[in-house]
Design brief:
The protein is about 10% helix and about 25% strand. It is mainly beta. The strands form two sheets. Strands 1-2 form a two-stranded antiparallel ribbon. The protein has a two-stranded antiparallel sheet with strand order 3-4. A hairpin with a 2-residue loop joins strand 3 and strand 4. The radius of gyration is 21 Å and the shape is flat. It starts with a strand and ends in a 24-residue tail after the last helix.
Length: about 90
């Protein structure tokens, strides 16, 4: 089986044929471990939690629980530019 590696900005994406990986990745949101070993890239399924069922993540309702809607924007002095920022 041959996979395709594609560069997008600073990331590399490996594309696998569906029939090759569908018995490992069920819903497209499975968490996997990726590591290098002896010059090889190893990808293996994480145990046992998937990203979609990760109970440590809060829902949008939980994140805004108790928020009353009041918001006052403030000015923050970040200091002088230190790089190539455009002000």
């Amino acid at each position: 089986m041959t996979a395709t590696i594609q560069r997008i900005d600073d990331n590399f994406i490996v594309r696998f044929p569906t029939n090759f990986i569908e018995n490992i990745i069920v819903d497209g949101l499975e968490a996997v471990q990726v590591f290098e070993e002896y010059g090889r890239i190893i990808i293996q399924k994480s145990e046992p939690t998937t990203i979609a069922n990760d109970t440590t993540r809060k829902t949008i309702d939980e994140l805004f629980d108790g928020y009353d809607g009041a918001y006052e924007p403030i000015q923050i002095d970040w200091g002088a530019p230190v790089g190539n920022e455009i002000w």
